[in-house]
Structures are given as structure tokens and as C-alpha cells.
Amino acid sequence: MTVPYAISPCTELDLLAAIELLSRCAREFFFPEMGEEAQIVFLRENTVAAAQTLQAKGFVYLAAKQDAQLLGFISISPEGYIHQLFVEPDRQKQGLGRALLAAGIAAISGETQIDTLSVSASNNAVRFYETLGFVRSDEPQSWHGIPYNPMIKTLPQNPASA
């Protein structure tokens, strides 16, 4: 049985919890395949201050919460670039990531028509994105020693009819 959750814009407290979740997931899933320098770069680039800067540039941050506990979050650019999408490990494979992505698309679609989504997926997230219809758009890449997989998804012309 799945307990209900709500998705809403991130508050400052949500951002703190989101960065904590991101850091925990990174240590568990990303860091084993990264060197120490890459780990440092990753942590320096993913802070509350960095998230607030992206929010000021129009990135949407949404939190999925249950009884004030953060279960996951998404940050997505106005152009459809999925910057971050993290879900508590014990809540994965229950549709929460899919729901966060749908909410993120809905949040940015009010301003402009988005034709394509893109993401720099970590190695462990590739399968998740593939199940949502994303395809690799290039060979695996590395940024400061941080491995990622460029992926895209073309959206239907009229999302209301899809």
C-alpha cells in the first residue's frame, strides 16, 4: 500500500532537505565510481546557495513530501533540462520519480511550449529514464571526473491530448 504524498514548490527548508538527500544518494550511488576530486566538485556544485541561484534563473524546484518529510525532489529548467531528480532510496520504484517529472513538466509548460526534455543521467539512473522514453543522445561523458549520460525525450506536440 502506497501512502499518499503531495508535490509542491520547494520551500527553503525543503531545499535544505533536498541537498541532504542529494548528498546521501551521491555517496551511495555515484561516489563509488568517482575519484575524490570529482566527489569534491560534485558537493561544491550542489549546495542550497547553488539551488537558490538556479531558482533565480527560472529553474523550478518541486518537493514530494509526506507529513512534512521530503521523499524526493526535482529541479528542471524552463527549457526542459532536468537538473536534478532524486528520490529516497526506500521510496524508489513506486512511481514517485515519474510523478515528480510529470509535475516538473507541468510547472514549466505554463510559460513556453517544451518540445524536448534533456538530462545528464548518472549511470544508475539511465534505466529509470529509459523506462520513461528517454534515449541516449551521445556517448557517456565526464565533467570534472563526474560520469553522466546525455539523454533526451521528445514530447508530444499537444501534451493535453497525450
TrEMBL record:
Top-rank lineage group of the source organism: Bacteria
Name assigned to this protein: GNAT family N-acetyltransferase
Any GO molecular function: acyltransferase activity, transferring groups other than amino-acyl groups
InterPro entries: Acyl_CoA_acyltransferase, GNAT_dom, N-acetyltrans/Recomb-assoc
Keyword Zinc in record: no
Alphabetical UniProt keywords: Transferase
Domain N-acetyltransferase: 5-156
Transmembrane segments: none
